[in-house]
Design a protein that fits this description.
Helices cover 30% and strands 23% of the residues. α4 packs parallel to α6. With 246 residues, the chain is of the alpha+beta class. The two termini are 32 Å apart. It has two domains: 120 residues, Archaeosine Trna-guanine Transglycosylase, Chain: A, domain 4 (Roll), CATH 2.30.130.40; 75 residues, Methane Monooxygenase Hydroxylase, Chain G, domain 1. It has a five-stranded mixed beta barrel with strand order 1-3-4-5-6.
Length: 246
């Protein structure tokens, strides 16, 4: 079992390998993390782990609030995640490589990272200025018939795009824009579909590529059928994710 210890960045979203993650970092615990990452030589990867939050807050409360207006806000690296942060997070996440870490004049950071490898969360350490975690790297196994499933998912995904964009909107991607490597297809489609976080988490932690693609094929067919029955839907830019306010 290959394990690694990395800084931990919890979010209310799921990061997939190969997908880009823009971050607007303003909380002190994550600013401390970025300052530490900047100590890494530029020719080496500046890695941290992203996990989806199961129970807690992406941004810790910074002022007294309900129901007790006199309660003091939490401080520290695990603020907002309860007494046992390990239980607050999903157990499978993704390593991110920060290609850009730019500090602004006010001390906040603009970060652009890319997901690389799936990992399983083994333990969380809150003793420092930011959370760190011991992680087990998860291999991506192809599974049975991944190639054929990927082609079916791509066809279904194009139909889903057209329905979601609307009859008068141009297609959001052409065939030339889409990959054909099964694992890449599975992650791109998982990230691009308009799904809730638990469903995206289920896709991330699928046991192999073929299992993920089978699940996506069912989801695409179901979602396309639902969209077809609705009178209208707004267009979505499927291949972008919102910048985290963290």
């Amino acid at each position: 079992m290959t394990t690694v210890r990395l800084p931990l960045f919890p979010l209310n979203s799921v990061l997939f390998p190969g997908l880009v993650l823009p971050l607007n970092v303003f909380e002190e615990r994550y600013r401390a993390m970025m300052r530490e990452l900047l100590k890494t030589p530029e020719d080496e990867p500046r890695r941290f782990a992203v996990v989806a939050i199961r129970d807690g807050y992406e941004v810790a409360p910074s002022a007294p609030g309900m129901p007790d207006p006199t309660a003091q806000p939490e401080r520290g690296p695990s603020a907002g995640f309860g007494p046992d942060p390990l239980k607050a997070f999903q157990q499978v996440g993704c390593v991110a490589d920060a290609a850009t870490v730019r500090e602004r004049a006010d001390g906040t950071f603009e970060v652009l990272a890319t997901g690389t490898t799936r990992v399983r969360l083994l333990s969380v350490d809150a003793s420092g200025p930011f959370l760190t975690a011991e992680l087990e790297e998860l291999p991506e196994e192809p599974g049975d018939e991944a190639g054929a499933l990927a082609q079916g998912v791509l066809r279904a995904f194009r139909q889903y795009q057209k329905r979601l964009a609307g009859a008068r909107e141009r297609s959001l991607s052409t065939g030339a824009d889409l990959p054909d490597e099964p694992s890449v297809v599975s992650y791109l489609v998982a990230a691009a579909m308009v799904l809730d976080t638990p469903t995206k988490q289920r896709l991330l932690q699928a046991p192999d590529t073929a299992s993920r693609l089978r699940d996506e094929l069912k989801l695409l067919r179901a979602e396309t059928a639902i969209i077809r029955s609705l009178p209208s839907l707004p267009a979505f830019e499927l291949t972008r994710t919102p910048t985290s306010l963290n």
